[in-house]
Amino acid sequence: MNNALDNQELSERLIKNIKNMKFDRKINIMEVCGSHTMAIAKYGLKGILPEEVKLLSGPGCPVCVTASSRIDAIYRLAMRKKVVIATYGDMIRVPGSSPDISLRNAKSFGARIKIVYSAEDALDYAKKYPDEEVVFIGIGFETTSPTAALIIKDAKRENIKNISILSLHKVVEPVMRFLLEQPDIKLDGFLCPGHVATIIGAKGFDFISRDYGKVGIITGFEPLDIIEALYMILTKLKKGESSIENQYARCVNYLGNKAAVNVIKEVFEPCDDVWRGIGNITNSGLKIREEYRNWDAAAKFDLTYEEEKSTACKCGEVLKGKISPYQCPLFKKICNPDNPVGPCMVSSEGSCAAAYKYK
Ligand code: SF4
């Protein structure tokens, strides 16, 4: 029997066991990572759960949680002469505080936007064009912040002065704590993000059971990974146990990647940060340390951020797991991938985009 058949048999067995589970109360499980949200929608995994169990999307899509005031500031920066914005493609169409503020629109007015696939691409570009002023938009969690930190170190070591990083990086633990402490959000457990766990280790999620008595299963991104993690989490909940388990042991160890954690700490320090639609969360962001100030775009260009404006978009409620995209009055009627009102419809990891694409 080959692996595929093995996997199919195992999946079928796990799905059958999950479907047969009964709970005498409502159970809410949150998947924190945008890649999990997409995989769950793509493979229809909500459909394998008992009816008392709800799977909620969380705030793990980096594009979706980037505050609109930061998009506005990037837009203003992009309009400056000589500045080249180097960014991941998903950021291009994200609207800021109004629909006409986006990098796509900035580009139509002559702004120079370069799509990159990594922080290293941005550094290579800066080396190739020393007369240009490259600003790399650093978004993402502990998975992407180490590479941003490395290019800052490289730029300093090689004395490359025409690149800076706008750090909009975020940290997973504070936002999970924030959600666990909201009186109106009831969570029983988490599918924890496997990518982040490769950096911070399983230990980085211990607080979920230690401080809140909840369950967390670190999991990968294949359908079988998620099915197995759902089975593990529901089995724990059925037994009334709370612990952190590592389903993704082929990539994640307990202590994580020490070198990556160290480079994050060396270049960045924690700061309070605003999450789109959610608000300010203490120590949930990463700012560039004083020692690397010359490579900090916020300092270099004296960037300021305005107050977040409220809009009709319900991304904040979606990201907190309070509503599903279908409950947003704009979903499909006004907001769709061709006319995204909020970032959750733009990003390839956004809950609204996933719901639109795979429903
Ligand atoms: Fe925002 Fe559109 Fe999602 Fe509604 S459907 S929450 S407007 S992105």
TrEMBL record:
<dbReference type="InterPro" id="IPR002780">
    <property type="entry name" value="Hyd_form_HypD"/>
</dbReference>
<keyword id="KW-0479">Metal-binding</keyword>
<comment type="similarity">
    <text>Belongs to the HypD family.</text>
</comment>
<dbReference type="GO" id="GO:0051539">
    <property type="term" value="F:4 iron, 4 sulfur cluster binding"/>
</dbReference>
<dbReference type="GO" id="GO:0005506">
    <property type="term" value="F:iron ion binding"/>
</dbReference>
<dbReference type="InterPro" id="IPR042243">
    <property type="entry name" value="HypD_1"/>
</dbReference>
<dbReference type="GO" id="GO:0070025">
    <property type="term" value="F:carbon monoxide binding"/>
</dbReference>
<keyword id="KW-0408">Iron</keyword>
<protein>
    <submittedName>
        <fullName>Hydrogenase formation protein HypD</fullName>
    </submittedName>
</protein>
<dbReference type="GO" id="GO:0051604">
    <property type="term" value="P:protein maturation"/>
</dbReference>
<dbReference type="InterPro" id="IPR042244">
    <property type="entry name" value="HypD_2_sf"/>
</dbReference>
<dbReference type="Pfam" id="PF01924">
    <property type="entry name" value="HypD"/>
</dbReference>
